Amino acid sequence: MKHFKQIDVAHSPDADDIFMYMAIKFGWVDSQTLRFTNTALDIQTLNEEALKGTFSATAISFALYPFIRDEYALLRTAVSFGNGYGPKLVKKKGAILKRNFKVALSGAHTTNAMLFKIAYPNAKIVYKNFLDIESAVIGGEVDAGVLIHESILEFSDELCVERELWDIWCELAGEMPLPLGGMALRRSLPLTDAIETERVLTEAVRVATSHKPFLSHMLMERNMIRVDKHKLKTYLNMYANENSISMDKIAISSLNKLYEIGYKHGFYDALIDANDYFIPTEYNQTRFS
Questions:
Q1: Residue 149 is among the residues annotated as catalytic for this protein
Q2: 3-class secondary-structure state, position 26
Q3: Where is the active site (predicted)?
């Protein structure tokens, strides 16, 4: 019996991450050497587990990556960028936020947390599961909250948008795509396995994107998605699209701008270039040529 190496993949339970992985789960994409398992966790937990090195491959907030760069390589695939949209800072209608307002964020190392902290240095921050942020604002536990994932498409009519984090990003970076989430792979994997993992994950996103209506229907049928089919279509067009298959030069430039901003504002101990942290896929070409 052939022995397959197991790769544990962690991703968030939001629609775009599930969508981008499911081609593997359904057997539409496979490997001759690897087998994959998956775990769904909220983004704060994913970032915390990445800091511990828990999973072989894991979804992360892009803003986290400089903290794990020695243990994980960046993958080019399964990425989510905002382009004219992104997380939203919401409050109760009619509320006026003080300089030191209390806000709920989805995690300390998320991209939205970094941008928020730059824009609102005096705010008092608490961290919550992203699913609990809306109710915390409505219930008065916090003055405001940053909504992410599908929550940006529909929220209580008791709330209104105080500020789009896209606007904060544009003030800092200009009109570039906003890097939100990506994938990282543990460096302890043999390079050939790392290259194969990225190949399979890339193909999974490609296949999912090419069969979006069919796969979306399967996910809805299995009750794996929290929104209706119309919002799912909108959401996937925003965050799981052709640009999610593999980062292009514009996406990488945006990512480097994020790291430049983070370094400038004291979030990172060094200024990094994302190009130095991708898996060298050319290795196989040289080895087997």
A1: yes
A2: coil
A3: 149 (proton acceptor)
Q: What is the pLDDT of residue 231?
A: 79
As given in the structure block, the two tokens for residue 221 are 């049928």
Q: Which stretches of the chain drop beneath a pLDDT of 50?
A: 288-289
DSSP 75: P
Contact 277, 187 (CB under 8 A): no
Collect all residues with Cβ–Cβ distance below 8 Å to 221 and sequence separation of at least 6: none
Sign of CA dihedral 27, 29, 32, 38: negative
Q: Which DSSP letter does residue 223 get?
A: T
Q: Of residues 11, 149, 217, 230, which has the active-site annotation?
A: 149
Q: Is 127 helix (H, G, I), strand (E, B) or coil?
A: strand
Query: Which residue is listed with tokens 């983004």?
Result: 43
The domains located in the chain, with CATH, are 5-81+178-287 (3.40.190.10), 88-173 (3.40.190.10)
Q: What is the pTM assigned to this prediction?
A: 0.92
CB-based contacts of 267: which residues, under 8 Å, 6+ apart?
63, 66, 114
Most distant CA pair in the chain: distance in Å?
66
Predicted pLDDT at 221 = 76
SS3 6: strand
Q: Is 121 exposed, middle or buried (0-12, 13-18, 19+ CB in 10 A)?
A: exposed
